[in-house]
Every structure is written in C-alpha cells, then in structure tokens.
Amino acid sequence: MTDTTSAVRMTTGTRIYLYVSLSLVAMLVLIPLVTTALGGFKSLGDLRVNPFGLPSEWVWSNYLDILFGDRYWRQMLNSLFIAIVTVMLTVIVSAMAAFTFAHVKFFGANQLLNYFLIGLMFPAATAILPLFIRIRDLGLLDTYWGVILPQVAFGLGMSILLFRNYFRNLPEELFQAAFVDGCGYIRFFWHISMPLSRPIVSTVSIITFVHSWNSYILPLIMLNTETKYPWPLGIMVYRGEFGTEWQLVLAFITLTILPTVIVFFVAQKHIIAGLTAGAVKS
Amino acid sequence: MLFTVFVILPMGEAAWYSLYRWNGYGLPQQFVGVRNFEVLFNNAAFSQALINNGIIILVSVLLQIPLALWLAMMLAHRIAGVVAFRLIFFLPYVLADVAAGLIWRFVYDGDYGLFAAVAGFLGVATPYVLADRSLAIYAVLAVIIWKYFGFHMMLFIAGLQAVDRSVLEAAEIDGATGWQKFRYVTLPLLGSTVRLSIFFAVIGSLQLFDLIMPLTGGGPSNSTQTMVTFLYTYGVTRMQVGLGSAVGVVLFVICVTLAFGYKRIFMRHD
C-alpha cells in the first residue's frame, strides 16, 4: 500500500478524522447485514420491539428448521449446478474462440470479433421476450438449459475479450518454437496456452460464477417449477409465503447469503481482483 | 452459433416483434407499425420509468462516485485496518441484488424494521417509506448507493496505486495544499478511472431490475418503475410481446447510443 495523498507524516487530527469517517461508513454498511443475521434469532415479538439489539432470547429453531428442511439445500444445489455448468461452458467456448482470434489469421476475423463485442453493449433484458419465445420453441422452457445457454451466450462477449487480450500477451516466440517442433494449434492450445492462462481462467470463472449465482431475471422468466428454482427465486417465493413473519425470512436470507460471505472472506483477494480487474481490462 | 441464436437473433427479433400486436403464440400477424412505440411514450408508467432511470444515473454519477473516490482517497493512507475497511465496503457488491433488496425491505419496514425502531425512539410517527409514492424512489436510491459504491471505490483504489508519488511530492514542495494536490494532480491523473467508473454506473443504472423487485416491485403506483421493471410488468407478465419488445428496442437504442457516444467523446485516449 503506497501513500499517495501525503508525503509528510499524518497529524493526529487527520488520523481521527479518517477513523471516524471510515467507521461511520462501515457501520452504515454493516448494520443492515448484522441486524438481519441477528433478527433470524429473534421471535417476532422481540423483533418488533427490538430490531437493533441482541435477541432477548436466542430462538435457534428459525435457523434449524430451515437447515433441516430440504427446501434451502435444493435451492442452493440448483444455483450451484447452474453456475458450475455455466462457468465450464463459458470458459471452454470463449477460450477456444479467443485462441482462434489471437493466433489464427482468417478472412473476416476482425469483423467477427466486433460482432461478438456488440454483445457487451446491451443488457440481456432488452431481448428477454424474444429470448423467452426462442427457449420455449426449442422446448427448453422450465429446464436448467433454458437458463444456462442464454447466460453463457451473454457472457461470451466479455470473456472472449479477456481471453484474447491475455493470449495475445503470451510471448510469440513460444508459439513459433512449438510450431517448429511440430506442435499443432490444438495441442498448443491445450498444452501451452491453457496451462499458462490460469490467472485469466480464474478471472473469467469468478465473474461468470458470481453473475450466475446472483442472477434473477433469467431464471424468473425461464423456470416455473419451484423445485428447479435457484436461490434468488426461491428466497422471493419464501418471502411471499411467510410474508410478515420477518424472523423466518431474515433467517432464510442470512443462510442464503452466508456461503457468499464466507467465500468472499476466504478468497477476497481473488474475488476483488477478478471482479474489478476484469472490468478494467475489458 | 450459441451467441447468434441467443444474443443477436433475439435482439433483431425484438425489433421485428415491436411492430406487431402479439400474445406470443402462433406467428405475429397483426402488424401495427409504430403503434407500440406511441403507446409506450404516452404511457405514464413508462415516462416515470424513463425519469427514474435518469435520476438513478444522476445520483450514481454525482453522489455515489464522489463518495467512492473520497473513501478510496482515505484508504490510500497508511493506517491500520485499511484492508478490513476495504473488505467491508466491497461486501455489499458481492451480495445478490435480490438479497440486498430483501434486507433493505426489512430495514425500511414500518412495523418490524429498523426504521420503525428509530422512529419509535425519536417519538415520531413511523414512516412507511416504501409505500409512500414520493419517498419510495429515495429509499431505492439509498440502497443502490449502499450496494454499488464499493465497486467504484475499488476501481479508484486500483487507479490511485498507479499515481506516481513523486509528482505529489513535487507539488508539495511547490507548496500545494491538500485540496490543490487533489484537484490539480490526483484527479487529472485519475481521469481514465473516473471515465470508466461513470461508464459502468450509467450502463448498470439502465439495467436495474433485480434490486427493485424485492424492494417495491416498481410500486407504489409505478413510482419506482425502471425501464426493465416496466418491461417485465407490462411485457412479460401480460405477454404483450409487441409492447415489451418495443421497450427492449428503446433500451437497446439508449444503451448503444450512450456507449458509442461516451466512448467516442470521453474515452478515445484511454
């Protein structure tokens, strides 16, 4: 961490100002999250008189009932399945396409690349109705593929760009040497480019995974059987069912975001770098 | 192939469908020309959605980005706990919009939520902010800032690390004050990051949907509608394919115009 704002030693005044401002903002960020987690331990009456403080009596059953039911786990597994398949398809397809763009000169390559980059320009929502009709006519409505395929397709623009920029920065000599040794494009791709591309594979995977894990509008439109719902849909249904029984809803919210929070704190460096650097590089 | 079938074709079809009145079954046959667009622009809810998207962009750019920059500047100091603060500030960004929306729905709840408790403590009548036509949009804006400032802050932290310290030291030797250093040295050097950050804020604001649905669903009486929630409410749930596609076309034109225009004018040197 370099000090970019002041070359001189900080005064105590500045120090206090910094800590007070930063702590205030941190509190505004954390209070909604902490009260949500604590609220899950309260009874409804307790929540009504005391939404801020510690529970007057810790009600574990709110959490335990959800954890011992199958609803929560089913939703998490649905989300996990959709996200993992989306990531694998996105990485394989976009890496191969980007490899071609980076190394093979063919007629219309630039035009084709620009064609993919159009996809970066507009959100999936603009075409959601025709997309729905297409998925319906393909018979994929209410299947995981109806969610996965459009997700992969809309992720391609960004991931192809990230992969291509990375592949192009791999030393050209490597390619020539391999070529002289009789290594073809396909072997070069699998044995040289991909093993050297771990950083960019992880960036693309993180962006795609987070996007898919959190996505709401696409499954909302494509799925209509509740047992297939990923968690963002499931949580909305749960909230609709339990309405003002906020203590249950809060426990459910806490459990659904818990994996995200844990993974974020464990792998924070990779996730922050993936989500921000990914945005900047493209 | 995949890309053509699921990205480009649907966009083209949206343009085609937008000229028809169609419930999505059979083939679109009832050609109505630009009628859908006329209906759209005479629709009060859609006008409100356009205005709201405009407000969201303004607030994101004029409030959220300065806040993010201010925090990034503070976190550039060599003080203990910097890493922890960065983590906390970035945390809302990794949470799903739906979860964040529901959490804030609880915060704003007039019976069980934090607002109810604060109002009770102050001895004033509990405001039901999300049910109030004039307040709901501000409540939504606060959640948007809460959710996304961490992302912009991280962009600025990355940008600040690239700022050459010796330039700042030179400015200091020349007697520049803290503000002058910021205004005439740091900010210009951060130019490309600021432009990038604005670009993301604008594009993100235009597609806002997931956060609105759990908070207000576009209500009360359409006061927090955005273009995408409007598309969902009027196009998808009622299967008015023509009208919904027309919204898609309008959104597409706005996105592409902004993206191209912005890149051409502001980002050509980056």
UniProtKB/TrEMBL annotation, chain A:
Enumerate the Gene3D superfamilies for this protein: MetI-like (1.10.3720.10)
Bilayer topology: Multi-pass membrane protein
Keywords, in A-Z order: Cell membrane, Membrane, Transmembrane, Transmembrane helix, Transport
Q: Which GO terms describe its cellular component?
A: plasma membrane
Transmembrane region positions?
16-38, 80-101, 113-132, 144-162, 246-267
Lyase is among the record's keywords: no
Q: Where in the cell is it found?
A: Cell membrane
The Gene Ontology biological process terms listed for this entry are: transmembrane transport
What the entry lists under Pfam families is as follows:
BPD_transp_1
| Family membership | Belongs to the binding-protein-dependent transport system permease family.
Q: Know the name of this protein?
A: ABC transporter permease subunit
Q: List the top taxonomic levels of the source.
A: Bacteria, Pseudomonadati, Pseudomonadota, Alphaproteobacteria, Hyphomicrobiales
